Automatic annotation (TrEMBL):
GO terms for cellular component: membrane. It comes from the Eukaryota. The lineage of its organism: Eukaryota, Fungi, Dikarya, Ascomycota, Pezizomycotina. It is found in: Membrane. It is a multi-pass membrane protein. This is Short-chain dehydrogenase/reductase 3. It holds the Pfam family adh_short. It comes from Pseudovirgaria hyperparasitica.
Length: 352
């Protein structure tokens, strides 16, 4: 998505959401024009002046009725989405943030490091699992515990999980954030790297959930956050391996939600999947120059991290597409093929 398209989409989305499809605004306006006492109605029509001649008045009122109806439908859709994401449950979990423990994989840099910042600011104790060294500013921090952990080894994850429970307590939040990305064609991808990217980007999610979910089920309390990507919706050249792992991450999130609802009957354990657009992190280094040259929109990592922390603190399940203007990407595969290819081509040219 280009910078201009992203900004235009953001403006249109904001205008539609906050003004055009806001029944709090369109409802009273419609009442003033059609149902208010004659004196109020006439005064209001006089204020609008030439916009409200006979022809324009009828057209404007009809458009207003449509906007009001669509706003009501949008509100109901939003409410049903929240209910569905809550696994059709109205039960609420009591979160006391200065007593909660969060696991963040890949928390030593990029988005993960900023998520750690946001959580500790709100009083959450955070355990970082990473192969990178702990940043100096996190060392000796009273709310942060660090384990140098290769999350691609299930036995290592299980051992660390036991150590965390013994030394700190039972985690209630798990953020599967760690990920890697390269810039290779299918033919240039080595077997070793292919195993590595799938191990880190998706198989590790199975290991961490197997390590920490059982205690969440017992407590009927938890929140598992999957950091996926917009690449899970659109596959482009030179990063097929990465896109495949992120599509798998979305499937993992959806399947986990189904098992929590139908197999374990514990809707109190929340799930969130996050799909950021291109984000300025160390992972983007291989593509950044070409993205800038083609004027692609690049997110600041703070934008994604802040949205993740806000979602966790809300105590609700969710699916976040960042920026919101990119939300149509989730419907891409339902579009005509010529449109699908157009979207893929516009992104693919920026990374080849």
């Amino acid at each position: 998505m280009s910078i201009a398209a992203a900004r235009t989409g953001t403006w249109i989305t904001s205008a539609a959401k906050n003004i055009i499809l806001n029944p709090v605004l369109t409802g009273p306006l419609l009442w003033l024009l059609t149902k208010a006492p004659v004196g109020y109605r006439s005064s209001f029509i006089d204020i609008l002046g030439p916009l409200m001649n006979t022809a324009n008045s009828t057209r404007f009122v009809n458009h207003l009725k449509i906007a009001f109806a669509l706003g009501i439908i949008r509100g109901l859709n939003w409410a049903f989405n929240l209910w569905a994401l809550a696994k059709w449950s109205t039960k609420k979990t009591n979160w006391v943030w200065n007593e909660e423990i969060a696991i963040v994989t890949g928390g030593c840099r990029g988005i993960g490091m900023l998520i750690v910042d946001g959580l500790v600011t709100r009083g959450v104790k955070v355990v970082i699992l990473d192969v990178s060294d702990l940043p100096a500013r996190f060392q000796s921090h009273k709310q942060i515990m660090y384990f140098q952990c290769d999350i691609t080894k299930e036995s290592t994850v299980m051992e660390v999980a036991m150590n965390v429970k013994d030394s700190l307590g039972t985690p209630t939040v798990l953020v599967n954030n760690a990920g890697i990305c390269g810039n290779k064609t299918i033919l240039d991808t080595s077997e070793e790297y292919l195993h590595r990217i799938f191990d880190v980007n998706i198989l590790a999610h199975f290991y961490t959930v197997k390590a920490f979910l059982p205690d969440m089920l017992k407590a009927r309390k938890g929140h598992i956050v999957t950091i996926a990507s917009g690449a899970g919706f659109i596959t482009v050249a030179n990063m097929v391996d990465y896109c495949a792992t992120k599509a798998a991450a979305l499937s993992f999130h959806e399947g986990l939600g189904q098992e929590l609802k139908h197999r374990y009957c514990v809707p109190e354990v929340l799930t969130t999947c996050v799909h950021p657009h291109w984000t300025k992190t160390p992972m983007l280094n291989a593509f950044e120059d070409s993205l800038i040259a083609t004027k692609q929109f690049i997110l600041k990592p703070e934008t994604t991290a802040d949205a993740v922390v806000k979602q966790i603190i809300s105590g609700k399940s969710g699916q976040l597409i960042i920026p919101e203007a990119f939300s149509l990407a989730s419907a891409l595969r339902g579009l005509p093929h010529w449109l699908q290819e157009g979207f893929r081509d516009s992104l693919g040219k920026s990374v080849v």
